[in-house]
């Protein structure tokens, strides 16, 4: 059973997230918080598998809460919920330990898929979030955007063929187990490739690697077993 903490300062949003997750037989909400500080306290108490945090909350916001939870509980995955217009926050959260990014107005299935993926150690960027992040990174002008895409392609080109395959699937939000099935290898091999990909790309986590994959246009098409 995947144990989840939900934090949002709006009770109706918390209720909606809880209701969506209740439809998944393998997910249970173990605690709810109305602000970031309370979320950190409850995470330390309940040690959930996944923390779903609103990016904007009074007091301690979702980014700082994600950082504290990741520092104290590195095995707890963190998903950040965002709305349109919060791209700067998303970019900050990438460096703060969050590995899942979802839009509040997204489909319920995305929330469930994201929680499952992050609980399994994968990164999960909803397609809309990934597109916005890449667009935001390129927003410094056409030249800057082209330079970023070119740099991303060069970084990806430095990977082995198998590492590029793994990155493409990682960028599509697949877990290690799903990648292993797609490539016909054992999960331990995938873990080794992922570690190598992160090191070669010079990034700290799977979410950042997924952004590079999207910038380089190297994301694989989703498969039926992804959700």
UniProtKB/TrEMBL annotation:
<dbReference type="InterPro" id="IPR000792">
    <property type="entry name" value="Tscrpt_reg_LuxR_C"/>
</dbReference>
<dbReference type="InterPro" id="IPR039420">
    <property type="entry name" value="WalR-like"/>
</dbReference>
<dbReference type="InterPro" id="IPR016032">
    <property type="entry name" value="Sig_transdc_resp-reg_C-effctor"/>
</dbReference>
<dbReference type="InterPro" id="IPR058245">
    <property type="entry name" value="NreC/VraR/RcsB-like_REC"/>
</dbReference>
<keyword id="KW-0804">Transcription</keyword>
<protein>
    <submittedName>
        <fullName>Response regulator</fullName>
    </submittedName>
</protein>
<keyword id="KW-0238">DNA-binding</keyword>
<feature type="domain" description="HTH luxR-type">
    <location>
        <begin position="152"/>
        <end position="217"/>
    </location>
</feature>
<keyword id="KW-0805">Transcription regulation</keyword>
<dbReference type="Pfam" id="PF00072">
    <property type="entry name" value="Response_reg"/>
</dbReference>
<dbReference type="Pfam" id="PF00196">
    <property type="entry name" value="GerE"/>
</dbReference>
<feature type="domain" description="Response regulatory">
    <location>
        <begin position="3"/>
        <end position="119"/>
    </location>
</feature>
<keyword id="KW-0597">Phosphoprotein</keyword>
<feature type="modified residue" description="4-aspartylphosphate">
    <location>
        <position position="54"/>
    </location>
</feature>
<dbReference type="InterPro" id="IPR011006">
    <property type="entry name" value="CheY-like_superfamily"/>
</dbReference>
<dbReference type="InterPro" id="IPR001789">
    <property type="entry name" value="Sig_transdc_resp-reg_receiver"/>
</dbReference>
């Amino acid at each position: 059973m995947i144990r989840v903490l939900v934090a949002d300062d709006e009770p109706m949003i918390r209720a909606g997230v809880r209701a969506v997750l209740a439809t998944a037989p393998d997910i249970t909400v173990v605690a709810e918080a109305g602000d970031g500080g309370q979320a950190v306290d409850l995470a330390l108490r309940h040690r959930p598998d996944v923390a779903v945090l609103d990016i904007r909350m009074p007091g301690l916001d979702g980014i700082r809460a994600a950082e504290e939870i990741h520092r104290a509980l590195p095995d707890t995955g963190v998903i950040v919920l965002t709305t349109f217009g919060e791209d700067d926050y998303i970019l900050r959260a990438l460096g703060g330990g969050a590995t899942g990014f979802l839009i509040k107005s997204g489909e319920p299935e995305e929330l469930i898929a994201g929680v499952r993926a992050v609980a399994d150690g994968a990164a999960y960027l909803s397609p809309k979030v990934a597109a916005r992040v890449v667009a935001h990174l390129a927003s410094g002008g056409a030249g800057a955007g082209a330079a970023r895409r070119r740099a991303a392609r060069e970084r990806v080109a430095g990977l082995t063929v198998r590492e590029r395959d793994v990155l493409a699937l990682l960028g599509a939000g697949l877990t290690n187990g799903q990648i292993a099935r797609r490539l016909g290898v054992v999960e331990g091999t995938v873990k080794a490739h992922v570690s190598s990909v992160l090191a070669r790309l010079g990034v700290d986590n799977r979410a950042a690697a997924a952004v590079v994959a999207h910038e380089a246009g190297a994301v694989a098409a989703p498969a039926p077993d992804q959700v």
